[in-house]
Amino acid sequence: MSDPKPTRVEVRLPSRLGYEKVAMSTAAAVAKLMGFADDRIEDLKTAVAEACINAIEHGNRLNENLSVGVILSSEANALEVKVIDGGKGMTGQPKKPDIDRKMRGEEPARGLGMFLMQALVDEAEWVASDDGGGSYVRLVIRLDKAA
Length: 147
Fold this sequence. Notes:
The chain has 147 residues and is α+β, with helices and mostly antiparallel strands.
């Protein structure tokens, strides 16, 4: 049953690969409490994992002195997840990868994470730091998404 009161959950992760699983589990638990279907929870977990891995690898450049912040904000019918790192971030939306070129080995196989996040959630936004204070990705998944 969904909780009509807005709720905020915050997690701070070390910049070490593997800790994205903590964020995945936390996001899944919040989504379950909100009443999301299992398939939507799996989509959310994958998107959150990708966002955290990008923050660890690209934002914080595997610097274990920096942490990754994960803020989950739930409302009546939506869950917003912000994954915050210490990097400069990127501006604009990512360009769509050429899947055929990647499959033929003409482009590196990596670089699908942002495209995947966009496909799995209802909103994905990348916000760059203006003042060097860190950047973030904002993911939103809604309960009322059409099947």
